[in-house]
Design a protein that fits this description.
single chain; mainly alpha
């Protein structure tokens, strides 16, 4: 496999970031429109704070709820997509540096990716 040029890598990273932000924005906007559609007649009570439900904190329940049209779950998926965008960038960089056979940058990028994934998975 031939090595990509620096310009190709930069352009692809830009496309990944752009696509991630646009997809995240679209999903979040769909959730927002659905939320406003379903709750347009309700009056919020600002005297009592209500946290998000526990089911929105776990991926096992979040995605089925989003696919069934729960507006808050759809917004949450949009936020997760936004968080995943820079992680995808770092993962792509690990692959690009591996193609260039640049071991130092593969190690540094791999360490950054490991720290990102560890913090996402284990710190809530």
């Amino acid at each position: 496999m031939r090595k990509p040029s620096d310009k190709q890598v930069d352009e692809f990273i830009g496309q990944v970031l752009r696509a991630g932000v646009l997809l995240s924005s679209a999903v979040t906007m769909i959730g927002l429109v659905l939320y406003l559609w379903h709750h347009s007649a309700s009056t919020p009570n600002y005297h009592v704070f209500h946290s998000i439900s526990g089911k929105l904190r776990h991926l096992r329940q979040l995605f089925p709820d989003a696919f069934h049209g729960d507006p808050v779950a759809i917004i949450q998926v949009g936020i997760l997509l936004l968080i995943a965008t820079p992680v995808a960038r770092v993962a792509f960089l690990v692959g690009a540096f591996a193609l260039e056979r640049d071991r130092m940058y593969v190690a540094v990028s791999g360490l950054v990716l490991a720290v990102l994934l560890y913090s996402i998975i284990f710190f809530r």
